[in-house]
């Protein structure tokens, strides 16, 4: 058996955790730059606030019903996510937990006797909520796909299931499959859903009755075969071990307002490069290639006054010697930014991507270039230690600027209750 633990309206739950008065009240969380709605509480959903719509379009409803609105607070969400996942590791064992996303984790329960599954699922839910304050749903079934399906039904019928559903008999599995539209199956995207509907396959149960040959032909080869086998109750998607080292590291952000100044573009690129280099050093790696891109902005229409993305342009370079030094990477990134910038242009977004990543103890040297990796490594270690202790990038490169007028807007940001001493929740 496999389980998936899914945090209910995770971002909204994080915001409610330190504001109990919001319990039972409608809450929404906005995307970067306060652009679109990316999380809604059940109460907000019932008001007709759609997922993904721009904030300005939902604003009349939000103001009418006094919906609590928050900017994305990734420091808070990341820390609470870690707490949830660490709780699961303590309860079940690290080797049995696969973190699937910031608010979801698969658990391998094949070593647990069938008779104990329901009690364990309830214990997982109770313990996570008690230890972290984040409400979760638990779906359990013989395969990963079926566990996702069970979790969906558990959340859809919260009162009846108490957010825990175990599909441990053929009859329960069949009923769940019949109640699930094909568009709601994990792994079925919009195009495949339309294709299945055109073939008169409307439910997960109907899809599970298809042959593996049909799945191979119509659902993307081996991936489709695995999906159908999982729906039939045959485990075909194994637990994944976490990637210790990423093969590509990117840092991208929307600007808080349109940028048409080369100096501001360079400040943003330098800032994002330093952030990517910090991630690189955390996994004890170096990068040999760097890519910088900027996204132009074009007016959407005169009626709304809103803007849309224009074309994205990028440039890349390969370093003589792989490095994790922020200074060396920033130097190359700024040269690329100068190549990309066009006078008179207006830009909405920029990003930096580090690639050709390798462990920092296996740097291939260049006969004609001095290797100062040890010296740079000591400097960066000192900078990282200071910034980790003092927070807020107290030590940064001058190229990153001081005012940062281009910084992303977060007009409704909540305190970082769990990661900043001066933002701890006060209890009176």
Description:
It is a single chain. The protein is α+β, with helices and mostly antiparallel strands and 428 residues long. It has three domains: 73 residues, MutS, DNA mismatch repair protein, domain I; 151 residues, no CATH class; 152 residues, DNA polymerase, Y-family, little finger domain (Dna Ligase, domain 1, 2-Layer Sandwich). The chain is built from 15 helices and twelve strands. The strands form three sheets. It has a five-stranded mixed β-sheet with strand order 5-6-1-7-8. A four-stranded antiparallel β-sheet has the order 9-12-10-11. Strand 5 and strand 6 form a beta hairpin. Helix 13 runs antiparallel to helix 14. The two termini are 46 Å apart. The model has no long low-confidence stretch (mean pLDDT 89).
Taking all Cα atoms into account, the compactness measure Rg is 24 Å
CATH superfamily of the largest domain: DNA polymerase, Y-family, little finger domain
What does the largest sheet look like? 5 strands, mixed
Give the number of helices: 15
Task: Give the class from helix and strand content and strand pairing.
Answer: alpha+beta
Q: How many discrete structural domains?
A: 3
The N- to C-terminal Cα distance equals 46 Å
Could you state the order of secondary-structure elements as H and E?
EHEEHHEHEEHEHHEHHHHHEHEEHEH
Got a strand count? 12
Question: How much of the polypeptide forms β-strand, as a percent range?
Answer: 15-25%
Mean pLDDT: 89
CATH class group of the largest domain? Alpha Beta
Shape: globular
CATH architecture assignment name of the largest domain: 2-Layer Sandwich
Identify the strand order in the major beta sheet.
Answer: 5-6-1-7-8
Helix content: 25-40%
Low-confidence stretches: none
CATH topology name of the largest domain, in short, is Dna Ligase, domain 1
């Amino acid at each position: 058996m496999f389980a998936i633990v899914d945090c209910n309206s995770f971002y909204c739950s994080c915001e409610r955790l330190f504001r109990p008065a919001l319990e039972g009240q409608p809450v929404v969380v906005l995307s970067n730059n306060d652009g679109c709605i990316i999380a809604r509480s059940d109460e907000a959903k019932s008001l007709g606030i759609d997922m993904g719509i721009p904030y300005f379009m939902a604003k009349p409803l939000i103001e009418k019903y006094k919906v609590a609105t928050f900017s994305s607070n990734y420091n808070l969400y990341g820390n609470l996510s870690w707490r949830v996942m660490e709780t699961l590791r303590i309860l079940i064992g690290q080797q049995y937990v696969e973190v699937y996303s910031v608010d979801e984790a698969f658990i391998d329960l094949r070593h647990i006797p069938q008779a104990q599954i329901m009690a364990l699922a309830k214990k997982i839910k109770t313990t996570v909520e008690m230890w972290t304050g984040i409400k979760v749903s638990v779906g359990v079934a013989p395969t990963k796909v079926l566990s996702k399906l069970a979790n969906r039904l558990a959340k859809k019928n919260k009162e009846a299931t108490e957010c825990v559903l175990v599909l441990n008999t053929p009859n329960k599995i069949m009923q769940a499959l019949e109640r699930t539209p094909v568009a709601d199956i994990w792994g079925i995207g919009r195009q495949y859903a339309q294709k299945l509907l055109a073939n008169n396959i409307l439910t997960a149960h109907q899809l599970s009755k298809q042959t593996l040959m049909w799945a191979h032909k119509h659902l993307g080869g081996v991936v489709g075969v695995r999906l159908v086998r999982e729906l039939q109750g045959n485990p075909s998607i194994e637990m994944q071990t976490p990637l210790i080292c990423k093969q590509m590291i990117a840092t991208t952000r929307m600007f808080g307002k349109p940028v048409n100044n080369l100096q501001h573009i360079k400040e943003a690129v330098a800032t994002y490069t330093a952030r990517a280099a910090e991630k690189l050093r955390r996994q004890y790696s170096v990068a040999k290639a760097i890519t910088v891109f900027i996204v132009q902005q074009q007016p959407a229409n005169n009626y709304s006054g809103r803007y849309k993305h224009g074309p994205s342009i990028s440039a890349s370079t390969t370093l003589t010697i792989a490095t994790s030094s922020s200074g060396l990477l920033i130097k190359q990134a700024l040269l690329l930014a100068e190549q990309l910038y066009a006078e008179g242009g207006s830009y909405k977004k920029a990003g930096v991507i580090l690639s050709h990543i390798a462990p920092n103890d296996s740097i291939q040297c260049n006969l004609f270039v001095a290797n100062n990796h040890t010296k740079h490594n000591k400097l960066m270690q000192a900078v990282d230690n200071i910034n980790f202790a003092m927070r807020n990038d107290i030590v940064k490169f001058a190229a990153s600027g001081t005012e940062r007028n281009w910084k992303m807007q977060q007009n409704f940001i909540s305190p970082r209750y769990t990661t900043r001493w001066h933002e701890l929740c006060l209890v009176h």
